[in-house]
Amino acid sequence: MTQLYLIRHGEAFVNVEPIIGGMQGDKGLTPRGVAQAERLRDRLAMGEIKADLLLASPLPRARQTAEIIAPALHLPISWDAEVQEIGVGEADGMTADEAWSKYGQPNFVDSPFLPIAPGGEDWGQFTLRVGRALDRISRQHEGKTVVIVCHGGFIDGSFQYFLSLPTISPFCQRYEFYPLNTSITHWEKVSRRGHLRWQLISYNDAHHLLENK
Questions:
Q1: Contact between residue 65 and residue 149 where contact means Cβ atoms under 8 Å apart
Q2: pTM of the full predicted structure?
Q3: Is it true that domain 3-209 has CATH number 3.40.830.10?
């Protein structure tokens, strides 16, 4: 049975500062984000997930999270650019005010096919990339358990892909599920009446952050 565990990165500086965080603007995890990833590492060290493969976005916030949890999974990290957050193009490293003043504030509900900035992705392109990545990963690693350290937008996109929600259409829009930092979303491929289907096993599982509070 193919298992995909999507893990959102820990709290990042781009989550608390008004900085557009592509490869240039992403300064990695805050001290709180590091602590969140360490608590997830300690949880995973108990053997909860028997993973065959650890994939991660190369953006610094996901890279740092993956590097923290990798020892608990006893796996090397494979970097996968297709599981990155939506591409921000020329807005990378700008403050939000600077970017919105120059390029306009993105509105993925009313204008899903306008990119954040030149060279960036629009929501339709991004969800196509998410679906392509999930299809590729699940096909290449059929029957395996794969952990993917990624981003909130990628997890949102997984719902569009696995639940066949509208993507490339005049009514394409962003579905926002607000996954918590270092939360786990678990998808499993199961057989139903002779057909293979993706089933959501758990979403936004971050109980490791509730301990000792």
A1: yes
A2: 0.93
A3: no
